[in-house]
Amino acid sequence: MNLDTAIDTFLSPIADKISGIIFSSITIHGVKIEFLVALLMIAAFYFTIRTRFIGIWGFKHAIQLITKNYEHKEIRVKKKKGEVSAFQALTATISASAGIGNVAGSAAAVSIGGPGVIFWMILAGFFSMALKFGEVLLGLKFRKVNPDGTIAGGPMYYIEGALKNNKYIGKFAPHLSKIYAICCIFAMIGGWNLFQINAMTTQITEVTGGDKSFFANQSWLLGLIVAVITYFTIIGGIKAIGKFTSKVTPVMCTLYVLTAFAVCIYNIGHVPHTFALILKEAFHPKALAGGWMMCMLWGFRRAMFANESGLGTAPIAFSAVKTNNPVAQAFIAMLQPFVDTVIVGSATAFVIVVSGEYLHTSGIAGIELTSKAFGSVCPFFPILLTFMASCFVLSTMLCGSYYGIKAWNYLFGDTKLTTRTFQVIYCIFIIIGSAMNFKSIINLSDAFTLFLAVPNLIAVFMLSDIIMKELKRYCKKYNVGLFKNNEERENDEERLSGDSKIKV
Fold first, then answer.
1. Is 55 exposed, middle or buried (0-12, 13-18, 19+ CB in 10 A)?
2. What is the distance, to the nearest Å, from the Cα of residue 453 to the centroid of all Cα atoms in its chain?
3. pLDDT tens-digit profile of 287-332?
4. Containing domain of residue 338, as a range?
5. Domains in the chain, number
6. Residue 33: CB atoms within 10 Å
7. pTM for the full model?
8. Alpha helices in 68-167 (DSSP H)
9. Span 328-344, pLDDT tens digits
């Protein structure tokens, strides 16, 4: 028995058991509805409705903010606390979510749920924007600035800081924050890096000869190489991660979407039929037990996992942004689920359907299905995909390590020793993940990641009034969106131009 087989034989049953517990469900009319997925769906719908569909009316404002078209003297004159720019934080969170989670995850969703999953993924991405807005706002509002200028933020801090005086769950707030930190550590160590490295090693092995590849049955070697690279990068902290992702993420996302577009152009004759098939299968799936409801659930599960909305991870990264305006950064954060789910995730799924490759697989298929779809156009495309996937994997694992470090330091103290300890453990699990079975990986990854939603959504729901209060105050002050000052509606264009621009 080789090392790859030994690792998988030992850990796969454990992974399946854990995912079975976390993905507890109830059956309604023959359809299994998973509690955690349902909770995330409810939260996304709730905040979308309460913010009056902020993903629509706030989208333009988010673009204006990230492109720095706005400037306001009240914000400009203040010294901004933080470590990274808004763009660096945005690219970091996009890197953490738009990579393999959509390259391999979207493929897995289509292989199980069929073409109709794409419709529900896009819809889930849209509803996720409001939820992302709320949790990032809280992360920035209740972040902690350390004496050395570094930032600590995320659900751990707004759970403890904002809920401690709550008459209903105040006394449980410290325990709830610790529960989130523990869940975050397990999610990053036992979920994110396992999923990412497994997809990467699978793709590299495939393009280098498959069963005849040098890495066949010894994928752990690739895991070791990536682990070493990851370790020497993450010791630089969020500044090093932000610099890396700000350069790599825009290029990789653009290149990936252009490659997907090339596949669609090659299959241009099938595009109209593909659109029709997606809409038809979204409500009347032929190959999926449970009908449209199961199709919807798989679409939402995949989308919520990919864009992290409701999980509390993005607030950890955005808390480090140099800003004194939490609401403005929350608007910017909404762009993350739009980019990774609506653009990158749907591009992956559409390519798989338009190429017809989804018809030639059985069971759960990951990045290998995406590779076949790309390869149906040009033999070079799978190699290009391998390069892009490798960059996505590295950037995602870098961001995942930062999330895990902040949770680890929250529990064990922010010292050099505690930080290095987590970094070593994190890198060891990269090696382990490279040798595990994909089915076990995706179930374990989804389970650990989605369980983050439990403590985070409790806090976000309980603090929803604070979110709305801050949003309304911001919109009235700067005359933005549906909550702006009604008396100043007629002066909209003037206020959004010239000297009254907003800079964050």
1. buried
2. 13
3. 555 567 777 777 787 777 778 888 898 899 888 888 888 999 999 9
4. 3-500
5. 1
6. 16
7. 0.82
8. 73-76, 86-98, 100-103, 105-113, 117-141, 155-163
9. 999 999 999 998 888 88
